[in-house]
Each structure stands twice: as structure tokens, then as C-alpha cells.
Design goal:
The structure is a single chain. Helices cover 4% and strands 52% of the residues. With 189 residues, it is mostly beta strands. Strand 9 and strand 10 form a beta hairpin. The N terminus is likely disordered. Belongs to the UPF0312 family.
Length: 189
């Protein structure tokens, strides 16, 4: 992978920096608006081998959901949505990757939520590599995945509005904005 600045994403493990990264989502509400939220607790890594296909893994604590409404957030943790007590984490793991442009890729990922795994495409843009602030190089990525909540057993009995149409859309847009840090090599000698 090469960034727009001409810097390579060098082999090694790049750890996702949760302080400078975000995982957000939006879903249609009442057919006219969107509910938006984020997850505050997640971790992961991007592994770039010397030869071969880079891979990505991430773990999200679903109980860290935040939509700005504590009552709604508590409902999202409940058994009919994330079931955070029974399934406290969602995971993403890439299984393949192919390029779609000079700095764009599609990762084929396995998404596991509520104990159900689905294979989905994650469109990713590589934003480049910075030398960082003395703690290792930093790489930037942005991506989006569309998933269907019904595929994961989330709110399968959603009410229908009086005028027709669902109260809540089935498609959830998930956006990942990541900074990943590559630790500098350990000193020798």
C-alpha cells in the first residue's frame, strides 16, 4: 500500500489508536430521519506481512454504545438489540482484500454480532502515513460498511408506521475512521 504522500505502509503490526479513531453508525428512523451513534470502547490491529495480503482485526465493546440519549443507549444494550450481557463484543476480521483504485480497497470481512457471523465488504481508503510524534509511524484509514440489522437478529419485530413503512430502517451504515500506530523497532545492542 502506498499513500498519497508516497509513503509505504511498511510491514509489521499497526495498532489501532482508539483516542484518534472512531466507529460510528447511522440508521433510518421513522423513514424521515436518522439516529446516529458511536462506540467508545474498541481495539484492533492491521497486520502487514513482508509478502502477502494485509489483514485487519477489531473488537468492539457493544455496551459502549453512545447515541446521546441514555434511555435509548440502555435499550440498545438490551437482549432484543445488542444483548450486551450475553454477547459483550462484536468482532471484525478481514479474510481477503482487493484494490479498487490507487488508494482504495475493499476488505472482505467477517462481522460477528450477537454470536452471528456474516461476510461483508468494507470499502476502505488509505489516507497515508505520517512519521508521528515520536511514538512510531501513524497510518490513516477511512471505511464504510453497510449491514442489515435483521441479519444479526436485531429488533426483528420492528413496528410498522400507521402510514406504512418500518419505524426503523434495516440498513445500518457503519463508518470507521482509524489511526494506527506502528511501534518503532526495539533498540539493539
Amino acid at each position: 500500500m502506498t499513500s498519497s504522500a508516497g509513503r509505504d505502509l511498511t510491514p509489521g503490526t499497526w495498532t489501532i489508536d482508539p483516542v484518534h479513531s472512531s466507529i460510528t453508525f447511522s440508521v433510518r428512523h421513522l423513514m424521515v430521519g436518522k439516529v446516529r451513534g458511536r462506540f467508545g470502547d474498541f481495539s484492533g490491529a492491521i497486520t502487514v506481512p513482508e509478502n502477502g495480503t494485509p489483514s485487519m482485526t477489531a473488537t468492539i465493546a457493544v455496551g459502549s454504545v453512545d447515541t446521546g440519549n441514555p434511555t435509548r443507549d440502555e435499550h440498545l444494550r438490551a437482549p432484543d438489540v445488542f444483548d450486551a450481557d450475553e454477547f459483550p463484543t462484536a468482532t471484525l476480521g478481514s479474510v481477503d482484500m482487493h484494490g479498487t483504485g490507487q488508494h482504495d480497497w475493499v476488505l472482505i470481512i467477517d462481522v460477528t454480532l450477537r454470536g452471528i457471523t456474516k461476510r461483508l465488504p468494507l470499502a476502505v481508503s488509505f489516507l497515508g502515513v505520517s512519521p508521528g510524534m515520536g511514538h512510531g509511524e501513524v497510518a490513516g484509514f477511512e471505511g464504510e460498511i453497510k449491514l442489515k440489522r435483521s441479519d444479526f437478529g436485531v429488533l426483528t419485530d420492528t413496528p410498522v408506521l400507521a402510514g406504512g413503512g418500518p419505524m426503523l430502517g434495516d440498513t445500518v451504515d457503519v463508518t470507521v475512521s482509524l489511526e494506527a500506530v506502528k511501534a518503532p523497532p526495539a533498540p539493539t545492542g
